[in-house]
Write a structure and sequence with these properties.
Layout (H helix, E strand, L loop, with lengths): L1 H19 L4 E2 L4 E2 L1 E6 L5 H15 L3 H4 E5 L4 E13 L6 E17 L2 E13 L2 E4 L1 H4 L11 H24 L10
Antiparallel strand pairs: 1-2, 3-7, 4-5, 5-6, 6-7, 7-8
Amino acid sequence: MKKLIVMLAILVGTMQFGFAQKVPYDSVKKQIIYTEVVQVPNADKGKIFDKATNTLNTIYNEAAKKMDTKDREAGNIEMKCTTRVMLMDPKTKMLVADKEFIKYKLKISVKDGKYKYDFYDFHIDKGGFKYPIEKFVQNDHTVTKETRAPEKLEYLDKDIKGIIEKLKAGIAGEKVQVKEDW
């Protein structure tokens, strides 16, 4: 019986650690960060900047209000973003909105022929207290008893990767699906 308990504990720990490796975690900075430099051949900085701004407006509701920086000359866009966590209801097996929102920052830097995006500073606002979700990856639940951390990381990963696809498609000139809000 003891062997079974030990094996289950090792298996569960390995599963959580294994998933955490799929989220882009910088162990030096100890943060989750999605970043990439994307080449856009034969495009000048202004054109890429305009496409990025237009694309963000289709991806995010009221994107202009969320932008802290929108400097066309310097080629910088910085904005605060939010995603609502959707989790699988164990009884109905349907995705339902969780009470928590994950907040993060997005920075896009533009130069002639390329741009770089950074999604970073992921946290859950717990009554004015920033709870960094990197603690989920580190398996540190000292502040709150978190039982669904792997699911939240998985949802975040899918959401950010979907946004990245739309961003790349929009800047490349492909049609981007508009986010509908009732």
